[in-house]
Amino acid sequence: MGSSLGPILANILMTELEEELIVKVGEDLVNWKRYVDDTLAYIKIETLNDTLNKLNSFDEQIKFTYEIEVDNKISFLDVLIQHEKDGKLQTSVFRKETNTDVYINWHSHAPLQWKKSTLRSLVNRALHICSLPSSLAQEIDHLKNIFVKQNAYPSNFVNSIITDETTKFNNKNHENEVNDTILEPVTQLQLMLPYNGATGENIINKMKKQLKRYLPPETTSNIIYKSKKLSTKFSIKDKTIKKHMNNIVYLCECPDSTCKLQYIGETNRRLEERVLDHNNRDPNSHILKHSKQYLHQHVYMNDFKIIGSNYNTSYKRKISESIYIKEYKSELNTQESSYKLNLYN
């Protein structure tokens, strides 16, 4: 069963529902296990609709939907549950039909630790979910196939990770008895560093050895790689041509060779619209008034330069315009600045 709420609100309302209503439903609801707003429940089939109505009557913000077993199988999150004839339940890994099995490619510019962790987490998921050796073996074979053939991982690397995680899992289960040993508190030194490929990883490994050598025994180190966005290397968007740019501050220079006076302006419209305004469309334009008064040439797109961009509010544009007027000392701006700037009130 599941509800259509955000995770935080769902958790609050579902907790209240469990405390007030679930205990009153009685034998019709045999079992109830929940993760946020997804629930696995045993409900007698003949009382299904009645139980659903009771649950939906608790709060108008909660609307339950449900799925039932098909061929004695049902999925819950990433677990496929199979109902055997003897009444026992067997579990294996569940994947949606839209799953692509695309993970961090071996040749991608990413830390080796991320690639290890990706495979480790999936192996651990299989070890914890699969209840039968046959389903575990099938899942492990699937992981080997998609990582080696689809994501280009070396087969010896994949086999090594699988063996290592399986050994640790089996040892942990073997040593699951209560251990009364008092563990000493451990301090961790955590460093966040930019990732710089194989060269950077070699430097980090040397740094780890030095840290281990000089840090106290009760202190460990952990290096976290900070990734960079692709856009920091090159533009990932098509460049907007000059005449279509908006939310900008621009500089216009009188095209007359004997003049070259400048004007600073701002606009949330496309630049080509402002060019038309200053050319002949806006009688209040200082540039147009100047060209008429001194019989200078009219301005065109080549006479404009964008000096500030990406200002999504009028306030930001006007502040920027004021600063540029001060910086360029633009003679065609009749006011000293477009926005009054005070450091102190």
Model description:
This protein is of the alpha+beta class and 345 residues long. It folds into four domains: 7-68; 112-173, no CATH class; 187-232; 242-328. The protein is built from nine helices and ten strands. It has helices at residues 7-25, 48-56, 112-129, 133-150, 155-174, 197-214, 271-281, 286-294, 314-328, and strands at 29-35, 38-43, 73-76, 79-83, 89-93, 187-194, 219-226, 248-253, 262-267, 304-308. The strands form four sheets. It has a three-stranded antiparallel sheet with strand order 3-4-5. A three-stranded antiparallel sheet has the order 9-8-10. β4 and β5 form a beta hairpin. The protein starts with 6 loop residues before the first helix and ends in a 17-residue tail after the last helix.
Task: Report a brief summary of the structure.
Helices cover 40% and strands 17% of the residues.
**Helix/strand structural class:** alpha+beta
Number of strands: 10
- Integer tally of domains: 4
What is Rg? 33 Å
What is the helix tally? 9
Order of helices and strands: HEEHEEEHHHEHEEEHHEH
Q: How helical, in percent, are the residues?
A: 25-40%
Order of strands, widest sheet: 3-4-5
Provide the residue-averaged pLDDT. Answer: 85
The N- to C-terminal Cα distance equals: 60 Å
Q: Describe the main β-sheet briefly.
A: 3 strands, antiparallel
What are the low-pLDDT stretches, counting only 5+ consecutive residues below 50? none
Strand content: 15-25%
Assembly annotation: single chain
- Categorize the overall geometry: elongated
